[in-house]
Amino acid sequence: MRVNEHAITAAVILGLIALPVWALIMDEPFTITLVTRAVILALAAVGLNIVLGIGGLVSFGHAVFFGIGGYAMGILAYHAQTYTTLELGMLSTGGTKFMPVIWLVAMVVSAFVAGCIGLLSLRTSGVYFIMITLAFGQMFYYFAISWAQYGGEDGLSIYIRNDFPGLNTLVPIQFFAICLALLCLVLFLMARLQSSVFGLALNATRQSAIRAETVGLNPMRLRLLAFVLSGAVTGLAGALFADLNRFVSPTMFSWQLSGELIVLIIIGGVGRLMGPVIGACVFVTLEHVLGGLTEFWHIYLGVILLCIVLFARGGIVGLLTGKEGAHV
Amino acid sequence: MSEPVLATHNLVKTFGALTATDKVSLDVRAGEIHAVIGPNGAGKSTLIQQICGGVRPDQGRVALLGQDISDLGTQARAKAGIGRTFQISELAMEDTVLQNVMLGAIGAAGNVWRFWKPALNVQSLTEQADAALARVGLSAQRDTICAKLSHGQRRQLEVAIALTLQPKVFIMDEPMAGLGTEGSKIMTEFLDDLRAQAPILLVEHDMDAVFALADRISVLVYGKVIATGSAAEIRSSKAVRDAYLGSDA
Amino acid sequence: MSTILVIEQILNGLQFGVMLFLMAAGLTLIFGVMGLINLAHGSLYMVGAFSAAAVAGLTGSFFLGLIAALAAAALAGALIEMVVIRRLYKAAHLDQVLATFALILIFSEGTRWIFGSFPLFLDIPDMLSGPVTLPGGIQYPLYRLTLIVIGLVVAIGLWALIERTRLGIQIRAGENDREMIAALGVDISKLYTIVFALGAALAGLAGGLVGAIQSVQVGMGEPVLILAFVVIVIGGIGSIRGAFIGALLVGLTDTLGGVFLPELFKLFMETGAAQKSGSAIASMGIYILMGIVLVWRPTGLFGARA
Q1: Among A71, A147, A306, which would you mutate to test the C interface (most chain C Cβ atoms within 10 Å of its Cβ)?
Q2: Is residue A220 part of a domain?
Q3: Any CB–CB contact under 8 A between C273 and chain A?
Q4: Would the CB atoms of A310 and C94 count as touching at under 8 Å?
């Protein structure tokens, strides 16, 4: 079977609209929440796919940005709900419950941190890069645990979901619509990025950094920008995830989450536009179905993952289109 | 006589006990093809690496048009005007031939920070790339995935990418390898014309091509240049016969 | 702040460091010889700890438990090497990461399935319990001192193994030139299994030893694994010496930072705030150390050139 990649994109997006609408009609709000979770994880993985799929950099620390997005939401909303001020040196603010501002802050802070981590970790490559990103992830995890002001190990609860003008965000389908709209927007931008001059250069750098240097391009700068963009997108997803749960805790920084984001991409297909989206849908379905059958569903996830790595390197998109995924 | 386009001065590089290049000084002048020949392990690859920036010499300098480029990295040397082709292809194997050549055009244009317009719709880049492909005779393979090219075609693609850079000097590492008789002939004619655009430092094993093309030939043995001269001088040099041609022929 | 406290904390740091060394040595050896990044190394540490706790619980003998830890981890290591890992030696790093991540999931959930979610406890044997008085009148737990000694003995033993034995020659040859040792008639796949099992045994030993001072639970291995990665990044991949120095640096930085940074902050902050920010910064200490080493030497203190 050989399916066109555009057809896959269209089918997945339609499915993501149809399922919650069906759930709405059947009055199954939990299904809507489940799909929302998949959409947000997909967004996080789309971010990771910029560095992993196009850039060929195995970042095992993307939970950092997911967590930063989560805490950006948590801290801003916490100050807004407790009517306390947040002092940031020169700047002091009362926090905010306004989603677009929260998203902007989440993305800017994530991008900044990605820039710092990128500057250090991109000095190396290969296995070093994997270990260093993993280590920085752990650094943020422990920092969040010891950050008593914002709940430490217990995390922060935000009692009311943040506001978006014109919508009641506490209605599951309306919050879902926000998340899906953002995912579609980012996917569109991602498609542009992938085929742009920058995308072409980054993709070529993954395949041969020496080639890029020989034509006068600087691989470090290309990768650093990719890392920053990637961090910003994953940060945005983190802010949405925290809003979905109305809760943020250090587990958003955990290394397991970084691993799961990579797994999503692998299930779907590395470097493919819809790879992370399909991967996230499959992952959330597995989590729900297998998790309902057995407490130890991670064993099955492990076995599935092993099989994909050893036997089906293109992921689901690869199986459908008959093409292998990007080699990383 | 005018200043050489490219010159190396006493390049020394050792790896442990092995001396890969031993005080190598040679130059490439405008309009010429300067071939470097020598048995395997003579230090040709290390020499190229030192010229292009992949390996830092222990001693010695590299100058391009009189400017010292010894302290520049690979990327900066490419920008300064060194156009290199690889012996073992360094290509984006998953990409099309056109995309590979466009990479050269992107590097030459110097503006990679374009995020919106699809690269394949940027006319200035595709035109340059297509022109380069036409010159090396790869237009028919324009949309082929690079991994599906024959070894010879990859050599041609390497040259096409270098062309888009419009370098001051070409550094070519065995462009004839894998081309076959007919392909070598075409490549030989092509390089013959190319030297008018920019001089070529040619490392090559195909002796027919070398003797047909080279204005000057340097013979590298165990890291040392044992002779430099015209094709006729090299043919008649006793030192070369003893050290290299004698053992090989 | 007394000298006794400082010495005590230095000893704690050393103890932590040598246990990290046991983990990092295996990881770096496996990377150096086979070119493999093994995330499941933390699982082998956990296997060691659980085996030690289970066998010691059954037999009442700590030492039998320790032997079980070594044996079980080595066995588990050899098993996964033969079933999964050997298919990954030539694979991309991403595949190695994913497959060994999958192994973590299988090991962790499998252990939870067998032993349940509650932590097990492993008691320090009587003959090693209680404090010992060091020169200068410092009281220090005998067991922790024993850990330091065991760690140092293993470090010396490993050095001797690699420098002085036939297996060591083969290992060093494997790091330099794989074709060469195959050409010399060494059974390379057997060598790889042995190296992997050796690394696993070291991790299992660390797990068993540390199990007596920490609770034995699922997920205990990965934080140690990541610290071992920090050690390797600092020391340089493939270098046992680098792993040793890196492990001691990390152990000392983490232990001393946690104790002394809050004290330091108290000099210019009020006590509560100093305690909070001091321990927050201290939790980042080793990563800051790693960052400094990366800026200074991207391939680590004893790493090969990139």
Answers
A1: A306
A2: yes
A3: no
A4: no
Question: Confidence class of residue C245 from pLDDT cuts 50, 70 and 90?
Answer: very high
* A281 Cβ contact list (under 8 Å, min separation 6): A12, A15, A16, A38, A42
C172 lies in some domain: yes
Nearest residue in chain C measured CA to CA from A327: C92
The mean per-residue pLDDT over the stretch B212-235 comes to 91
Residue C54 dihedral angles phi and psi, to the nearest 5°? -65, -50
Residues found in chain B: 249
Q: For the residues C133-149, what does the mean pLDDT come to?
A: 89
For residue C233, is it within any domain? yes
In chain A, what residues touch C299 (CB-CB under 8 Å)?
A: 124, 128
Which of A1-15, B123-137, C58-72 is least confident? A1-15
Closest CA to C220 of C128, C151, C119: C119
Q: In a 3-state reduction of DSSP, which class is residue B224?
A: strand
Q: Could you tell me if residue C303 is inside a domain? A: no
Chains contacting A (3+ CB pairs below 8 angstroms): B, C
From the candidates A50, A189, A200, which should be mutated to test the interface with B, based on the most B CB atoms within 10 A?
Answer: A200
**Residue C11 to chain A, least CA–CA distance (Å):** 23
What is the domain count for chain A? Answer: 1
Chain C and chain B touch, per 3+ beta carbon pairs within 8 A: no
Superfamily of domain B1-80+209-249 in CATH is P-loop containing nucleotide triphosphate hydrolases (3.40.50.300)
The interface residues of chain B toward chain A in range 88-147, judged by CB-CB distance below 8 A, are 90-95, 99-100, 102-104, 106-108, 110-120, 122, 125
Question: How many domains does one find in chain C?
Answer: 1
Asked if residue C125 belongs to a domain, the reply is: no
What is the residue range of A285's domain?
5-321
The CATH number linked to C22 is: 1.10.3470
CB contact (8 A) between residue A216 and residue B108: yes
Q: What is the pTM of this model?
A: 0.92
For residue A65, give the CATH number of its domain.
Answer: 1.10.3470
Let me know if residue A327 belongs to a domain.
Answer: no
Q: State the ipTM, two decimals.
A: 0.91
Domain span holding position C274: 3-117+141-296
| CA nearest neighbour of A232 among A114, A132, A129, A134 | A114
Q: Which are the contacts of B170, defined by CB distance < 8 A and separation ≥ 6?
A: B83, B84, B85, B162, B194, B198, B199, B200, B201
